[in-house]
Amino acid sequence: MSTSLLPVCRELTMPMPPHDPTASLPSGDLALEGNMGSNVGVSTVGYRSGKFTVPEWHESNYAKYYQAFQDRENAERVRNSSKQAEAGTKAQETTTQTEVTRRLKERVHDTNFWKFELNREIEDMIAEADRLVSEKRRLESALRATEVPMHIVTECLGVRERRQGGDKVADDPEDAMLKELEIINNVRDLLTRTIKQAEQQIKKDRDAKADLEMDWSDKLEAAQIDARAASLHNESTEIMFYPGSAKFEDMQSSPESWAQFSHDNIVRAETERMASIQLRDLIGNILSDVAKDMVEQSDVVNMALAKRIEETADAKAKMENSLQNTLREIASQEKNIESLKHAIKEKEKPIKVAQTRLHMRTQRPGVDLCRDPAQYKLVDEVRELCDQVDALQKQLDESEESLRQLKDTRMTLEKEIAKKANTVFLDQKRCMQIRTRYPTAQKLIGYN
User: Fold this and answer.
1) Contact between residue 439 and residue 144 where contact means Cβ atoms under 8 Å apart
2) What angle do CA 342, 343, 348 make, to 5 degrees?
3) Which DSSP helix (H) or strand (E) runs through 25?
4) Could you count the other beta carbons within 10 Å of the beta carbon of residue 273?
5) I need a surface site. Which of 13, 142, 153, 360 has the fewest CB within 10 A?
6) What is the predicted pLDDT for the residue at 5?
7) What is the DSSP string of 35-71?
8) Does 113 have pLDDT greater than 90?
9) Residue 52 reports pLDDT greater than 90
10) For the whole prediction, is pTM greater than 0.85?
11) pLDDT, tens digit (0-9, with 9 covering 90-100), for 313-327
12) First and final C-alpha spacing in the chain
């Protein structure tokens, strides 16, 4: 207690005089003491009315002293309490602000952790999306590469349609080409479907990456805001009053849902990334398989064509040999016919001789017109000569028929040789030449 208050405190401890309730009332009957003059004088009643007595004056002074003492004591108590409250609130303020700063830094650390995880996943998604885009380009390149085999096989089938006659057969090369065309169509359908699947997966990858980037951007902004908030202190120049800021927003998330949101984004991105990796593996297998199937079928076609060319060339060579033999036979037969005609012509004179003899002997007179052995022999000679002529004529007819057949065969062989030559030309000079433009396996798997 302050020493200035001690006298007052001692005065206030003195016993108060007894209080007479009637002392404060003015008495009109009392005479003014000390007035020893004439009985005729001024009345004192007016001077005594409405005034306090001396005890009342002391009581009033004591009351004010006591009230002042109480007020000073209360003020000292309030002042001491205020200092204690000030010191306590200052300590609490420092402790709370330090705790808030620590928690803000922890929040920044947590936010940076998720930002790092999101950024790592974003980089993985970008790399994976780029790799999938490259695989899609390989698919498109492979699809374009199949156009050349498609044109080759259709052109070869069209070229072989120009085969003639009996050479226009459904042979092994044609069957192999039709199968090759079917394989190419199936490959093109498969590549087209796979390209669409890759485009869909690329869109999913980019959507997942966009979600990650949005989340990362929010985390970056939140980390910057919390870092700025954590750097604030009582001497900062940018602090202001923001009435109504000490409240919770309706749409605020909880720490669990906040972490779960980023976790779900990362899990969804990883799921799409794994799907993308599996699709890339599938694309690699598809390109390898289709290239293998197409190259193998192309080799089958080439071997079938080569074999067919060899067979056709061999048939053509045999026909050419047969034609040479036929030509030689035709020449021999023509000579034979000439010889037969000459032989028949040569029979005319002997027949004339025999017939002339017979005619001359018919002119013998009388009994001398006898059927003697000479007559019989002449008749037999004429008949024999006629039979010989008939036999030679029959041989001539047969030889001429044979010659006609030989000439027909020659014509047939010449036509067949021409057809075979045409077939060999189409297969060897056209189809095989066209098929030299067949793309390599490297191009068929999407590499230039």
Assistant:
1) no
2) 95
3) none
4) 21
5) 13
6) 37
7) --S-SS---SHHHHTT---HHHHHHHHHHHHHHHHHH
8) yes
9) no
10) no
11) 999 999 999 999 999
12) 101
